[in-house]
Amino acid sequence: MNRLVEAALRQRVLMIVLLVGLILAGGVGFANLNIEAYPDPVPPSVEVITQSAGTSAEEMERNVTIPIEQVISGIPNINAVRTISLFGLSDVKIQFSYDVGFREAEQRVLGRLGQLSNLPAGAQPTISPTSPIGEIFRYRIEAPAGYSVMDLKTIQDWVLQRRFKRLPGVVDVTGWGGKLRTYEVVVDEDRLLAHNATIAQVIGAIGKSDGNVGGQTINFGPQAAIVRGVGLINSTHAIQNSLVTTNAGNPVLVSDVASVRIGNEPRLGIAGEGRDDDIVMGIVLMQRGAQSMPTIKAVKAEVDTINNTGVLPPGVKIVPLYDRSTLIGITTHTVMHNLIEGVLLIFVLQWLFLGNLRSAVIVAVTIPFALSFAVIIITVMGESANLLSVGALDFGLVVDASVIMVENIFRHMVERSEHIAAGHGHATPASRFSAILHASNEVSRGIFFAAAIIIASFLPLFTLSGVEGHIFGPMAKTYAYAIAGGLVATFTVSPVLSALLLPDKLDEVETWVVRQLRRFYQPAAAFALANRVLTLGITGVLLVAAFLAVRSLGIEFLPHLEEGNLYIRASLPASVSLEAGQPVVNGIRDIIAGYPEVERVISTHGRPDDGTDPTGFFNAEFYTPLKPFDEWPKGMNKEKLTAELQQRLAAKYPGVELEFSQYIEDNVEEASSGVKGANSIKVFGPDLATLEKIADQIKQQMNQVRGIADLGISDSLGQPTVQINVDRALRPDAGRHQHHHLRRDRGREPRRPLRARHRPALPDRDPAATHRAQQPGGDPTHHGGRPLPHRHRHDPGALVGGGDRPPHLRRVLHLPRASGTLCPDQVLGPRARSRRRHRRGAEAHHEERRAAGRLPPRMGGRARQPDERGQPAGGGGADQPGADPDPALRQLLIIA
Hints:
Helix 1 (about 1-10) packs across helix 17 and helix 11 (about 325-355) runs antiparallel to helix 12 (about 355-380). By secondary structure, the chain is an alpha+beta fold. The radius of gyration is 39 Å and the shape is elongated. It has 28 helices and 27 strands. The strands form nine sheets. A six-stranded antiparallel sheet has the order 15-14-20-21-19-22. Strands 5-2-4-3-25 form a five-stranded antiparallel sheet. Helices cover about 45% and strands about 15% of the residues.
């Protein structure tokens, strides 16, 4: 080290240039350094999403989730598989170890999904683009009056989503709210029968009419032209003019048998902001491993381009709602604030204890030098920083070596000054350099080993793996870089600055602060030496008391990052519909927005159309950015605001469970544990009803624990379900057609009345079955309502499923038998009989029109084959075998 100090003293100008250049380079590097607001501690994980409209949670669990679990089993390095099955949605989260990267894990999962056999209803699994810290930008689409949410949803899906996804660093854009446009063909069965057409022909005609075809080439003189047939449907008029079939040589178009209208898909979620209860919102998602600031800058530049270059219709614009750069700016400001405060604090303390302004400046310069040294290394290695790694630097450790070096140099320079004043030497540069070298030689070994011990104390942080290593590893590296920079400054910059700044004449002055401390220290030291046993006894008592006190201290694994927002989750009853829950969501949003500390409130109810948030209509979330704390009323803080909100909302909406968190914190906690909350207790077992009962007991006990807030249960039961059970013993043909009939009930409304042929007398069978048919409830289909699981959760070690439950509520229609057949007059109620009379009148009217030649005659080509008893298959009632039963009865037999 002496040679290093000697070389630095010989090249003083070079050292000054190095100091200035390093600080400038560090400033430039810090400006370009990618600073993340929060580290991503979650291991590599892949989320598989599968949607199937109209499928219950049980069927999604049995037919989608379990097959996906089975096909991915056996992939190396999997730590955990967590699944959620909801109505129409299956979500499988596969968490890997840190031995593999995300890209490799994703490829492994995609390879296994390629081996998956066809899922029911054409369901297709996809990889979710979400990540714990991937949501970097939120916006809403504002438009003048006249634009519906369906129009804005179309702009979001067809314009904005495509433009944002092409930006570097952006993986996807999730749309929230709005109505997804659909073109609906509503078939009129009367017109369909009149034209002797079928529903299959209508569906086939529309499918065949929508498409382009290519041909060969045709020559026009010396030129060759490509033949291309254009038949894509681009309007409702084109759908109406599609040919279905021909009847008696006349073409039958879709408009002859159906009406075409514009509608929307059943809504899965609604977004709101402020006083607007229904908005269209977009969430920009960042790729895993991408840098936040460059990506956000590209997104903001694209927003300016879209708003100012006429990409959108007149009056339509993008309004930002959330910008991660704001939090990153706060983080950067905190780091710079800590740096300035650290420099000033070290400077003041050095001045107060040494009484020399120049020595204080020399020590303070070490801080920006060491921080610039660390920033340059981080930038060169391509790493990112965060508030934990940069903002938690202890500048006392960084300048410790420099303080020792400068203080010893100062002492030797005072001695040199006294020797010169006594006439024992001359004030020459050689004597100055000799004093500095001698001073550094005395402390260099101690400084080096002290720094080595400090760095060694961080070795456990370097050896951490998993989540702990990803959180504290960057902090340990930054500490090591900064301490190394401090050591370089101690043996190079500090001696050179001491040689240039410290004068030849120096006096060691005991400052007022030192004198006051000495007044208390000397008597205390004398008493301790005189009473050694008592001193050691007091020390032992304090150690024991400290040990006992430590056991009662709270422990936090992750440091709390103040994001400047609230993220509130409201859990409504499991059976609530989207329409019934929306007034509650709007009311909660209005209450939150009424507080002066709140900047705005954005609500999301349900889930987005792409299924990236696996939840249902029972879930509502409120993103609440807060105003700067210095603008809050005096005496108000975040804890008081949270308590007031919780108390007021609980009083206004009893039964609604509330959870308070922060935006990024909530995402990270959910990705780490699979539960929406900071802490959770998971109960495993084969019976869902028993699990719910145990969960209630645990909740009662947990409510007595001090410090617990926002305690709730993630319910799995409680979804009312209208269930149709086919009794094959009473209805032999029901099993053959049950899928065809029951699947029509999945949508919002049937597109045409359901048809069922009226059978003659049932064949003889077991007397018990005949007795059931003659008793109330002897219907061939059981139509019951019972609460079913609305959400299946799997965690590592959990037993899958919950099995069927005995129905808690069952309503069965009694169909009496008359002369071996079902008697319509005994089955139909007053309204059904009225519809029956109206139907017969309409049929008589059609017959009159056919007789007059205004309607084509009935086709008789659909002959029925006799069944095993000689009856015409699909035969009619007792009085007219082979005829269709009354339409009201046809619907009743299937739906009841």
